[in-house]
Amino acid sequence: MATTWTRRHILSLINFSAAEYETILQTAVGFREVLSRKTKKVPALQGQVVANMFFEPSTRTRSSFELAAKRLSADILNFSPGSSSLSKGETILDTAKTYLAMGADIMVIRHQQAGVPQAIATEMDRLNSGVSILNAGDGLHQHPSQALLDLFTLTTVLDRENPRLGLLNGKKIAIVGDILHSRVARSNIYSLTTAGAEVHLAAPPTLLPKLFLDASNCQYQDKLFVHWELAPALQDADFVMTLRLQKERMTANFIPSLREYHQLFGITRDRLKLCQPAVKILHPGPTNRGVEITSDLMDDPQLSLISQQVANGVAVRMALLYLIGSSK
Ligand code: NCD
């Protein structure tokens, strides 16, 4: 059952309710319809200012938020750190206050450090600004819009017109790869287990959070399972979500070589035989082709949902901007 939206910021999925997920899914269905029209634009956020503040590189998330804001007729400010006053010593909070003074209503923030969107939200609330903050990925912490577009993709594969949490109840979803550095996995764990799915994480022990290095921590409330090998995670899986090896975040040698990683944890056509016959693959992108997944699988439209994830991302982000924008 959907709910009236009350949240000002979307920072993490940690305490999202089932009703909030349902509201987002239903709202995104409406915007997917808008995006299928000849004129793919609605006046929902006309006059509102969305500041896209990406302190870390991004292709799809940044472009997706920009397009979503434009499709809602908002005015969009794009910020990139290299060409900004940050290089002159300005602090992040001062940058945010500059955008506030220009009349920003929503700030979409990505930062390499966990907690930055929360810190800006706290400051915006302290100033009684009414500004909404949307976390577009902070360090190793959270990436709520990615997990929400994944949820929309998974549920619309099962029922295109009426996606809902219940469709995932009892489904087995394997999340494979660099869990340690993945904010995508950290957000998906909340949404998928709330939907009643069984989430099976698989990674070499060096790429799992320390908590999971004790086998007794490898099962949580019958919903989250952790494996140090690939096969038990893939066995009878309905969906396989592969993750990028995040080399830019690795501070040590976490794996002997990319080739060995691929041999043990790479998703190949042969390995998918362990899964359900109708298995589908997701990847948040960007991908290291031939490392976490073979190139031919990535490009196989029968198996790969990667392009659908990107397309759905715009409708889901329109839903998020609309819900927080129109609750003002
Ligand atoms: C992810 C991210 O930035 O956390 N990508 C994305 O937003 N599409 C995952 C990654 O960088 O590997």
Protein topology:
Blueprint: H1 18-36, E1 49-54, H2 60-71, E2 75-79, H3 92-101, E3 106-111, H4 116-126, E4 132-138, H5 144-158, E5 172-176, H6 183-194, E6 198-202, E7 219-220, E8 224-227, H7 231-234, E9 239-242, H8 258-265, E10 280-282, H9 295-298, H10 306-326
Parallel strand pairs: 1-2, 1-3, 3-4, 5-6, 5-9, 6-8, 9-10
Antiparallel strand pairs: 7-8
Features:
328 residues; alpha/beta; Rossmann fold; 4-stranded parallel sheet; 10 helices; 14% strand; binds N-carbamoyl-L-aspartate
Derived from helix and strand composition plus strand pairing, the structural class reads alpha/beta
The global form is globular
Question: Any ligands, ions or cofactors bound here, and which?
Answer: N-carbamoyl-L-aspartate
- Total count of domains: 2
Helix content: 25-40%
**H/I helix tally:** 10
CATH-level-4 superfamily name of the largest domain: Aspartate/ornithine carbamoyltransferase
